[in-house]
């Protein structure tokens, strides 16, 4: 089956590229982690999730057992300073950052199944944020991000064209991007909209 991408895995090359990760202007310091993360090269398929959704424990049910450093990762996503005064090594900080990326992807997988999340993905689809079909006869049809597996990080992202109903490799900046979580429901929901 074909599964719509919910979140790509960040490439190490993108994490260290300060030019791409720098948010424009002098407002960089005031940018939330979510805005920063979604603006990174390779993360264009993500939409920004409302803090209220993330702070609702119901929406996070079962995720703590799937993500190492869960509490610290959640605090990082929500821009909450640790009140414990914990000091981490650089290696631990990298693990927490990686956990935050994974946690955001898992939350994103749930969020885009809500009406607000579907609306955000539909907007990205209409704005061609996921790219266009490379086939001439599809006349620039907007595509949806897609994966071929429900197993996290098991396949690279592709794009699905609803016109020719085929999977294509995305533009080169997404090549090699791993899928974290996919859902068929999103593709069907957006196409029928």
From TrEMBL:
Gene Ontology terms, MF aspect: protein kinase regulator activity
Description of how the protein assembles with itself and partners: Tetramer of two alpha and two beta subunits.
Protein name, per record: Casein kinase II subunit beta
Family: Belongs to the casein kinase 2 subunit beta family.
Function as written in the Swiss-Prot or TrEMBL entry: Plays a complex role in regulating the basal catalytic activity of the alpha subunit.
Gene3D superfamilies registered for this protein in UniProt: 2.20.25.20, protein kinase ck2 holoenzyme, chain C, domain 1
Lineage top rank: taxon: Eukaryota
GO CC terms in record: cytoplasm; protein kinase CK2 complex
Family matches, as InterPro entries: Casein_kin_II_reg-sub_N, Casein_kinase_II_beta-like, Casein_kinase_II_reg-sub
């Amino acid at each position: 089956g074909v599964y719509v991408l919910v979140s790509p895995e960040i490439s190490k090359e993108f994490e260290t590229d300060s030019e791409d990760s720098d948010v424009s202007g002098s407002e960089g310091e005031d940018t939330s982690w979510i805005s920063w993360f979604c603006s990174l090269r390779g993360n264009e398929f993500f939409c920004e999730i409302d803090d209220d959704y993330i702070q609702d424990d119901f929406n996070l049910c079962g995720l703590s057992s799937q993500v190492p450093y869960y509490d610290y990762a959640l605090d990082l996503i929500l821009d909450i300073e640790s009140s414990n005064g914990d000091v981490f090594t650089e290696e631990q900080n990298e693990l927490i950052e990686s956990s935050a990326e994974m946690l955001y992807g898992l939350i994103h997988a749930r969020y885009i199944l809500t009406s607000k999340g579907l609306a955000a993905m539909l907007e990205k689809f209409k704005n061609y944020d996921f790219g266009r079909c490379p086939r001439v006869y599809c006349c620039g049809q907007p595509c949806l991000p897609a994966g071929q597996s429900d197993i996290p990080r098991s396949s690279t992202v592709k794009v699905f064209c609803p016109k020719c109903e085929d999977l294509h490799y995305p533009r080169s900046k997404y090549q090699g991007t791993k899928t974290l979580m996919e859902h068929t429901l999103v593709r069907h929901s957006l196409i029928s909209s």
